[in-house]
Amino acid sequence: MRLHRNLVFAVIDGLIEIFNEGSYADKVISKQLKRDKRWGSRDRSFVAETTYDIVRWKRLYAEIADVSEPIDRKDLWRMFAVWCTLKGIKLPDWPQFEETPTRRIKGRFDELSKTRKLRESIPDWLDELGEKELGDKWDVELASLNKQAPVVLRTNKLKTDLDTLKAALVEEGHETENLKAYPDALQLQERGNVFATEAFKNGLFEVQDASSQMVAPYLDVEPGMRVIDACAGAGGKTLHLAAQMDNKGQLIALDIYANKLKELKRRARRAGAHNIETRTIDSTKVIKKLHNSADRLLIDAPCTGLGVLSRNPDAKWKLQPDFVAKIQETQQELLVDYSKMVKPGGKMVYATCSILPSENQEQVKKFLKTDEGREFKIEKQKTILSSESGYDGFYMCLMVKKDKA
Ligand SMILES: C[S@@+](CC[C@H](N)C(=O)[O-])C[C@H]1O[C@@H](n2cnc3c(N)ncnc32)[C@H](O)[C@@H]1O
């Protein structure tokens, strides 16, 4: 592989923003990709994947390169040289790479790889938390979460079917494979910019991880029901629910952020999902008005996101211990307050994209002991580990509210 100067500069500039200015990797990368209209798909994937790689392996590469925080531009060139050396890419004779100790890099890598928190490149506190919560499973799970995530599409059944979509994507140069256990899913055989396809613009699919595609079906919705998606965000699962409801009935999408719901509306138009109504939670009245009214409720709760580190590696560096404690309080509050929207005999799913029991089954256990929780019983629950499924880590629990006697 030959390195192109302008692409490498885009990577270095992006990393400065991610590491030093607290910016989110996905946002920075999409900004960097707009730098040069002439870049082809290979150039774009070099910028995106190299940036993600160096974010993912930040601690390991920094240790190898003898770099400490705050990381400046010169340090980043050293870390980039580590990335190249470990990938077997020949360093060009640019001044930035003068005196790179290639041999020493390989030796340091072998030596540091003996220690898990360095090998897997993770802060001490997070490694300790993962081990405390997942025990023996943490080792393989962590390794799995450091692998690049596959790109999975969800067929929008409101507009097409799997085979028609598959054929349409082939026409546009994207080969996909079916995933047996996921009826609406197609996995890209090669990464590519599927957002530029006509199929996407026409709303024939959404990009959605295979594990995430299991959540809406778990809620057991039917056309004609009143369904509430209480933490709808930009609507990944709302759109799936609309398709499961065949656009019939009422689907109320809530969130505390109006801008996310605005994006949801835009996506719903593209997807041809017509039964969605959005409401911003700007006071407790919004929830109160809906008490005892929902046939089905989804709480796709805010969480640490530890199940989705493979697509969001900068969470390793942005997460802080006090956030973990705070988000767990919020999760319990949401269960207690929002479960009141379920009508007697109705059902709710509590879901997270975390793999920590303290955000998942333990939250549910605690909830079931509260006054509100005593009204519910668990019908089924599932923890998806990335190391077992090959996709994102997720948790989902289906609970049923007692019918009135
Ligand atoms: C895991 S994300 C939801 C992702 C979304 N369901 C999807 O499938 O694309 C959690 C969402 O909860 C929202 N949120 C945070 N606190 C909330 C609260 N108190 N009530 C409702 N939503 C909240 C966040 O804004 C975020 O959009």
Record the SSE blueprint.
Layout: H1 5-20, H2 25-32, H3 41-56, H4 58-64, H5 73-87, H6 102-112, H7 116-119, H8 124-134, H9 138-145, E1 152-155, H10 162-171, E2 176-178, E3 185-188, H11 198-201, E4 205-207, H12 215-218, E5 226-229, H13 236-244, E6 250-255, H14 258-271, E7 276-280, H15 284-288, E8 294-300, H16 315-318, H17 321-338, E9 342-352, H18 361-368, E10 376-384, H19 386-389, E11 394-401
β-strand percent reads 15-25%
Give the count of helical stretches.
19
For the secondary structure, the number of strands is 11
Structural class: alpha/beta
| CATH class category name of the largest domain | Alpha Beta
CATH superfamily of the largest domain: Vaccinia Virus protein VP39
Provide an overview of this structure.
With 405 residues, the protein is an alpha/beta fold. It has three domains: 5-121, N-utilizing Substance Protein B Homolog, Chain A (Orthogonal Bundle); 152-207, Alpha-Beta Plaits (2-Layer Sandwich); 214-401, Vaccinia Virus protein VP39 (Rossmann fold). Helices cover 43% and strands 16% of the residues. The protein contains 19 helices and eleven strands. Strands 7-6-5-8-9-11-10 form a seven-stranded mixed β-sheet, with helices on both faces. Strands 2-3-1-4 form a four-stranded antiparallel β-sheet, covered by helices on one side. The termini are far apart. S-adenosylmethionine binds at residues 230-237, 254-257, 260, 281, 300, 302, 334. Residues 141-402 form the SAM-dependent MTase RsmB/NOP-type domain. Keywords: Methyltransferase, RNA-binding, S-adenosyl-L-methionine, Transferase. Belongs to the class I-like SAM-binding methyltransferase superfamily. RsmB/NOP family. InterPro entries: MeTrfase_RsmB-F_NOP2_cat, MeTrfase_RsmB-F_NOP2_dom, RCMT, RsmB-like_ferredoxin, SAM-dependent_MTases_sf. The active site is at 353 (nucleophile).
